[in-house]
Amino acid sequence: MVNTELRTVAILPPAVADQIAAGEVVERPASVVKELVENAFDAGATGVDVTITEGGRATIRVSDDGIGMARADATLAVERHATSKIRLASDLVGVASFGFRGEALPAIGSVSRLEIETATVDGSGTRVRVAGGTLESVADAARRRGTTVTVDALFYNTPARQKFLRGTRSEWRVIADVITAMALARPDVRITVSHDGREAFALPPAASLRERVAALWGVDTADALVAVDDVSGPVRVCGLVQRPADVGLSSRRVLLTVNGRAIRDTGIVRAAEAAYRSTIPAGIRPSLFLAVTLPAGDVDVNVHPAKAEVRFRDRWNTERAVERAVRRSLGTEESAAAFGFAHRTFMPPTFESGATMDVAALSSAPIPETPLFETDERDSEPDVAAPPAAAEIQVPPLMQLRNTWLLFERDDALVLIDQHSAHERILYEQFMRTLDRGEAPSQRLLFPMTLHLAPAEAEAFEDNRELFVRLGFEVEGFGGHTLLVNSVPMPHPRFDAERCLRDTLATLSGDRFGSGLAKHERLAATVACKAAVKAGDSLAPAEMRALYIALARTTLPAHDVHGRSTIVQVSWDELERRFGRR
């Protein structure tokens, strides 16, 4: 039966309207903590102290050493629609503050018992008390410069909302996540937090994001991150991302800030993750701590009541800038697996800087006329810095261990290169260029090769026939599931075309490789894996040097297409520690 009384339009009482408005900002205790700590940041605080009782259900207290408020401002700040940061509607475009003592305080005060103690100078302050949206008292208070906001009995006057709060531990976990994000967004601010009388966070001011990460989760976690800093037009992207070799080995953590504001944005996160293509297995997601900075007028922060989401004027270019920045950071040697390193800045992807030299003159052994590893000049990937010329790369003395690893030393480390992974990365990028730009040259066989395939393998070939042709395979049907191969590519002299083609089709038919990659990427990765030199293959000195040069000229030298490390570095400090010299 329809209730006809609900069809009557009426103006809501102010108290009810205030509580409805509060629901847009104050969803749970963590929302209160976020608003109050952001207010402290806007007030120029260098230190923020947070006290939580019963997961914020009983008490939330946030104290700062910011500029404080005069009595008139403190009294007005608890009124609806009062703020110090905007005067006109046009001020909403490009607003850089979080709010500053205006938008959130009346919303919080309408659903709690709120007390504000504030002072602009030491010794002379104001205490304002509000209960359920009603101003109860304004009095003098002796305190140091800054502001303390205490929120007691959250939702005491809205029991329907109070009963939907989760348990103390659940609400505390959400608060801890909020504080962690804000601590990462502002590493320069000292932050201490206690919960039910026990210290939960004690974070001193940090000189860098990496230092703050180390304070939160330890030095090992911080050292597993690669620095990002890149500018693309008006967009700057900086921060830290997880080294591919460490992805999946620990809990995933994500922080994204835009112009200093911690937000959620799946598009930006996806763009950053896209930069990891061909460096980690599909389905594994890296930790990301990224700060995006762009002109204030190019981002709208007023599309979400809690300012947790933003809208970009040019989303496509912003996401492209993020992907490019992360991709470039993964192309540096810093992203290689390392043991025993305190954080430092590594050399660029040439592995070693040095004067121009003649690679062929490094040894009396001649470089083969048809090199095993590509060293020709070519364009770099879009949005990736152009690789160094082969003649500009200084090659250190190399030795081969167990016919599997190339070994060389540097001033600060012992470095090993996995020859199969390295060649796989080289061939993958070579094949991707071939698939993107046209067919590769092929070698016609004197006697055609006949392949008898299983039904699934024949289907895999038909699904990828055009791509195989572009790679240089000339194949025709020979009845049933039999193929006649007339021409094959020759990426290097050791290439075994028959074995490569059989292994590639077997892998494609079993769907065991690169399920998260696009079709042409999957084929290039699979063929590169099967065509690369193997562990156990002995390499001549000239071949080792050629591999080193070709790897240095790839865009992502530290990772193969499976997500494994191509380069591993062991610091001399770590070796000395292992041998008891430290």
How does this structure look, described?
The protein contains 17 helices and 23 strands. It is α+β, with helices and mostly antiparallel strands. The chain folds into three domains: 178 residues, Heat Shock Protein 90, CATH 3.30.565; 122 residues, Ribosomal Protein S5, domain 2 (2-Layer Sandwich), CATH 3.30.230; 211 residues, MutL, C-terminal domain, regulatory subdomain (Ribosomal Protein S8, Chain: A, domain 1, 2-Layer Sandwich). The strands form five sheets. It has an eight-stranded mixed beta sheet. Strands 9-10-13-11-12 form a five-stranded mixed beta sheet, sandwiched between helices. About 5% of the residues have low confidence.
Instruction: Name the helicity range.
Output: 25-40%
Strand content: 15-25%
Number of domains: 3
What strand order characterises the main sheet? 5-4-3-6-2-1-7-8
- Please count the helical segments: 17
Unreliable parts: 342-370
Q: Would you tell me the overall average pLDDT?
A: 81
Identify the CATH class of the largest domain.
Answer: Alpha Beta
Distance between the termini: 83 Å
Shape: elongated
* Largest β sheet strand count, sense and barrel closure: 8 strands, mixed
User: Taking Cα atoms only, what radius of gyration do you get, to the nearest Å?
Assistant: 31 Å
